[in-house]
Each structure stands twice: as structure tokens, then as C-alpha cells.
Amino acid sequence: MGQVRDRLKQQVVEMTEKFPGFRPGLAILQVGNRDDSNLYINMKLKAAAEIGISANHIKLPNTATEADVLKCIASLNADPAVHGFIVQLPLDSNKPINTEKITNAVSPEKDVDGLSSINAGKLSRGDLGDCFIPCTPKGCMELIRQTGVQVAGKRAVVIGRSKIVGAPMHDLLLWNNATVTTCHSKTSTLAEEVGKADILVVAAGRAEMVKGEWIKPGAIVIDCGINHVPDTLLVQNTQKNPAQRKFDREIDMSTVESAQRFLEKFQPGKWTIQ
Amino acid sequence: MGQVRDRLKQQVVEMTEKFPGFRPGLAILQVGNRDDSNLYINMKLKAAAEIGISANHIKLPNTATEADVLKCIASLNADPAVHGFIVQLPLDSNKPINTEKITNAVSPEKDVDGLSSINAGKLSRGDLGDCFIPCTPKGCMELIRQTGVQVAGKRAVVIGRSKIVGAPMHDLLLWNNATVTTCHSKTSTLAEEVGKADILVVAAGRAEMVKGEWIKPGAIVIDCGINHVPDTLLVQNTQKNPAQRKFDREIDMSTVESAQRFLEKFQPGKWTIQ
Ligand SMILES: NC(=O)C1=CN([C@@H]2O[C@H](COP(=O)(O)OP(=O)(O)OC[C@H]3O[C@@H](n4cnc5c(N)ncnc54)[C@H](OP(=O)(O)O)[C@@H]3O)[C@@H](O)[C@H]2O)C=CC1
Ligand SMILES: NC(=O)C1=CN([C@@H]2O[C@H](COP(=O)(O)OP(=O)(O)OC[C@H]3O[C@@H](n4cnc5c(N)ncnc54)[C@H](OP(=O)(O)O)[C@@H]3O)[C@@H](O)[C@H]2O)C=CC1
User: Of the residues A73, A181, A190, B70, which has the maximum number of CB atoms within 10 A of its CB?
Assistant: First the structure.
């Protein structure tokens, strides 16, 4: 992703040369204090600083109500120094908050996470030039592009259909002209679908669900999964593979890795695991 | 579709009993004078009258500008007697009009054709209870339901990804829990994809594209196509099948019909051609 960061840094420099005094402004609105959200937000703030974007972290307490959050969004929508903002999900409040209502309150021009219905509508109908693309699928698409493999005409399989990962990933692959199949918890033929994929993106929220032997030789495989693996399983895995981290992947990596070694030996060519 | 009409008629009766003096109001806005649009609009006006909906046809000349159409939409958005309205597509004007801008000007609460980005976003992300569903895919889904075949867990293939038919059809099948594949003009494995489908919906705008022998025995097949077949081909077809109409289907029906006869004889069970 270093290339992407360099490109953006350059764009900010060009922008400020053209419009002296101008500084692109990002805000990140957090409700509550989840550990994973704190981690992600810090990464985003760090990246923004590196690129030359002025980023502002707004933290509401976990007692914030829906009305409090909506009020804060309205002021960000109106603030001319904020060019885009992110509402960090999930919202961590002890009051009932309708997440849908929150994401749709973000003004479409500032909805850099692309989670409002208007953005989703444009993305799903192929108006890619006129919308913001959710970051995880956008990153996956960038990784796929970096393999140099042409997406058009390929068979792509996405496991998962969430608003944040699976569904927009489907849209991006479809409008880059892949023939796309979406799998989910009601899919009865998962191994078979996976076996057909030239490009496979897994975003199912369950560890070690896809078996390495299902995957077609030469396929591009992207695993979005960040799953907490119970300690007992972790001990078993660590015995198998000492480098295993606590956050495990959704693809059974020991199987994929052995498949990869096999392929590298017997079938040279593109075989990418990100 | 008679059942649907009876159900809606009954609902209108109940509504007017509950709120005397109330009459549901539909408007249809047409620009220009296309033959096919005139035909479709007449069918809609007739259906509305049968159901007890007051329907109003507004016809702008083919000299109408984008601003004229937007002005008319704004007044329909504001009119309390109009509960929903349709902008008949394609727009037939000799002035340049951005169709996207027009469909997105319709207020989401009145967008009964479901073509605005907000509606598409909700449908594509699975908020089916909170959006309007475009009529052709909605009708297809109704036909599929009437077969009694359970959609969840089945493999569905949609050929086409237009805003009006293909893309919303994908969404409806996906959120009814089928495993859905979308095919389009860049799909390199069409016959193979068709061959896997338990449910196949064809909306590709090309006559006789899908061969009967590709189709899996027992599949539910829906052909949305309305295609004008050149007279020369028509003559050939009419010789094969005297009932062939001028508007031809996208599935090669003679092949499908012979497959159907074969199946009915040798493999009893569900085999539906709508
Ligand atoms: N790398 C990154 O930047 C990010 C990673 N993630 C990770 O990606 C993963 C997915 O996240 P998210 O989309 O938010 O998760 P969700 O829980 O919202 O969605 C999970 C999806 O997987 C499907 N699924 C569940 N079980 C199965 C199964 N047995 N077979 C096939 N499909 C199944 C679900 O189907 P159904 O719809 O039927 O329930 C659902 O569509 C998680 O591990 C998450 O931590 C998420 C965001 C960012
Ligand atoms: N029965 C009804 O009520 C209605 C019927 N229709 C009919 O449905 C059909 C589709 O309409 P509509 O969606 O508006 O048409 P569009 O022309 O907007 O879309 C056609 C779709 O088919 C795809 N396609 C074209 N050629 C091929 C091919 N060789 N293989 C696979 N896919 C292909 C196109 O792919 P790509 O995206 O790559 O270009 C596109 O997605 C038409 O026949 C139309 O008359 C339409 C509306 C209502």
C-alpha cells in the first residue's frame, strides 16, 4: 500500500501548490471506546498525517444518544474545513442507536466511507466514477490490480454480502467486468463455488472456513478475515505453525501454504496469496 | 398476475373503508411519444383503474428540456394527491437530458419504480422492507414464488446487469438467499454458467441468445426479453413455429420447448417456462 500512500501524498502537495492555504480535512467520529476501533482510528490518523491531510478525531462517550450522534454529524456536514468524514463502526454506546440512520445522515459529498444508501446505490449500479468506495473492498481491488491479472471476463467469487465488505466487493468486481458469484451463510455449494473462482475474496467472519484444497490452482485469493481464535485452538495451531497470530484468517492457511508450495514447484505461474 | 391484481384491489378497498374520501394517486410522466411507451402506459393506466387507483398521465412534448422535466417532477414531489409516480423511460426528447439526474430527482417516498440511487442502495444492501422494487424484477420474483420452489440455497444466474432489470433481479434473488451469479457481455463462460442455474433469469436484450440445451433439466427459466426480430428471421421462425410473434424472446424457444417436452416425458417434476 506504500505506492498508494505516495501517490496520495503527491496529490495533496499538488493541491496545496495550486490553492495555497488549502488543507484537505478529514474527521473521524467515534462513539465509545472499543479497543479495535481505537487501533483502526490510530492507523487512519497516522496515515492521514503522512499524506498531509489534517485529521480530527472526535470521541463521544458511550453514553451518547442517537440524537447526540446525529447532531455531531450535522455539524460535520456543515463544517467547510471538513471535506470528508468517517463514522467509525460499530458504534459503542449503551443507548439504542440505529446505525442505518447514522450512516445515511452523512452528507453524500462527505461520505468518504461510502456507506450511505446513495453511495451504495451508485456503486451497485455501476456509477463508479460518481461515488465513494468502501475502504476494505477498495483495498482488495487495489491488491488484485497489483497482481497484473486482468479482471474482465474472469470468474470471481465473493464469500460474504455485508454492507462494509462483501456487497461492495461484489459490485467492484462486477463493474470491472468479472462474472461474479456471491456466497453467504445459505449457500449450499460453497466448496464447488470456491473451486470455480479465478479470483476469490473471503469476508465471512469465520476462521478457517475455506479449505485450501477447494481453491483452483492459479487463483488470486484475498482473505479479509480478522478473527479472534479461541486459545485452545490457537495452541493447536501454534504447534502446527509457530508464526500463527491470535487474529486468525478465514482460509485454512496451513492447507493453502502447502498448496502454494506444491504449485510453485509443479505449476509455475501466477499464484498469489495476499 | 390476476392474483396480484385482486390482492391490490382488496387492499385499496380496505384503505378507503378505513379512511373515507382517500384515494391512492399515481402519476405517469412521459416525455415524447414513443410507441412502446404509449403501449406500456396504457397498460399501467388500465391496471390502475381496475385496482381503484386514480392515475394521471402527464405528457410533455419531445421538445421538453431537462429543466422542464425537473420542474414537473418537483411539482409531483410536492403534490399531496400524488402518492407515487413513474417517469416512463426512455425519455424521448430532442433536447439533451441526463436520465440519471431525472430518476434521482424523484422523491424517495414517491419513487414507486425504485430507480433512484437511494432505492437501489437499499435494495442492493438487503433492506428490502424499506424500499421500492423495480417492477420487472419484482414480477419475475412473483413468478418464481408461484412455482412453489424454495429460492434459498438455490443457484441463480441472471444474464444482464441493467439498472431496470438485471441488477435489481440479482439483488432480489440474493436477498431471498439464492447463491447468485451475474453474467453480462464480458462473461466468457456463458453456457457453463447457464448450465449450473436452478433459477435462470435472462434480461440481455438480444434475441435467441441462450440455447435450450444449455439449460439444466428442472430449472426455472424466466425470459424478460422483448426483442424486435428482423422480418427475414421472423419468416424462418414462423415456418418453424406459426405462433411466433414479432417480438421474440431471448431464449431459443424451439429448443427449450423440445427440451421441455423431453423432460415432461422422461423426467417428471417442476419444469417451468414463464
Ligand atoms: N481487513 C479489513 O480491513 C476488514 C476486515 N473485516 C473482516 O472481514 C470479515 C467480514 O466482515 P463483515 O463483512 O463486516 O462481517 P459480517 O458478519 O457483517 O458478514 C459476514 C458475511 O459472511 C457470511 N457467512 C457467514 N458464515 C458463512 C458460511 N458458513 N458460509 C458462507 N458465508 C458465510 C454471512 O452470510 P449471511 O449474510 O447469510 O449472514 C455474511 O454475509 C470479518 O472477519 C471482519 O473482521 C471487516 C472489515 C474490515
Ligand atoms: N418484460 C418486461 O417488463 C421488460 C422487458 N425488458 C426487456 O428485457 C431485456 C433487457 O432489458 P434491459 O435490461 O433494459 O437492457 P439493457 O440493454 O440495458 O441491458 C442488457 C444487459 O444484457 C447484457 N448482455 C448483452 N449482450 C450479452 C451477451 N452476449 N451475453 C451476456 N449478456 C449480455 C448487457 O451486458 P453489459 O452490461 O456488459 O452491456 C447488459 O447488462 C430487453 O429485451 C428488454 O426489452 C425490459 C424492461 C421491462
Answer: A181
For chain B, give the number of residues.
274
Per residue in A165-196, pLDDT (tens digit) is 999 999 999 999 999 999 999 999 999 999 99
Q: Give exposure, B110-148, as e/b (b: 16+ Cβ within 10 Å).
A: bbbbbbbbbbbbbbbbbbeeebbbbbbbebbbeebeeee
Where is average pLDDT lowest: B50-59, B95-104, B169-178, B241-250?
Answer: B241-250
User: Are A117 and B121 in contact (CB < 8 Å)?
Assistant: yes
Local structure of A23: helix, strand or coil? coil
Q: Do A182 and B184 lie within an 8 Å CB cutoff?
A: no
Any atom of ligand 1 within 6 Å of the Cβ of A206:
yes
For residue A209, name the pLDDT band (cuts at 50, 70, 90): confident
Which residue ranges form the domains of chain B, and what is each CATH number? Answer: 2-113 (3.40.50.10860), 134-273 (3.40.50.720)
Q: Whose CA is nearest to atom 40 of ligand 2?
A: B160
Q: Which atom of ligand 1 is nearest to the CA of A227?
A: 43
Rounded average pLDDT over B205-217: 86
**Contact with chain B for residue A101, Cβ under 8 A:** no
Question: Cβ(B114)–Cβ(B86) under 8 Å?
Answer: no
pLDDT at B190 over 90: yes
Does residue B159 line the site of ligand 2, with CB under 6 A? yes
* Cβ(A259)–Cβ(A213) below 8 Å: yes
Checking DSSP bridges between strand B155-159 and strand B199-202, what pairing results, if any?
parallel
Q: Which ligand is nearest to the CA of A229?
A: 1
pLDDT at B184 over 80: yes
Nearest C-alpha neighbor of A175 from the set A122, A114, A110: A122
* A109-113, A159-163, A259-263: the lowest-pLDDT one: A259-263
Asked, as a colleague might, if the bond just before B108 is cis with ω within 30 of 0, I would say no
* CA dihedral of residues B236, B242, B243, B247 (deg, nearest 10): 20
Answer yes or no: are the C-beta atoms of A216 and A192 closer than 8 Å: no
Task: State the pLDDT at residue B207.
Answer: 72
3-state helix/strand/coil string of A176-194:
CCCEEEEECCCCCCHHHHH
Q: Is B163 an active-site residue?
A: no
pLDDT at residue A272 tops 90: no
Condensed to tens digits (0 to 9), the pLDDT of residues B87-125 reads: 999 999 999 999 999 999 999 999 999 999 999 999 999
Sequence-ordered list of residues with C-beta below 8 angstroms from that of B54, at least 6 positions apart, any chain: B23, B24, B25, B26, B48, B81
Q: Is A186 on the interface with B (CB under 8 A)?
A: yes
In angstroms, the separation between the Cα of residue A115 and the nearest Cα of chain B is 9
CB A111 within 8 A of CB A119: yes
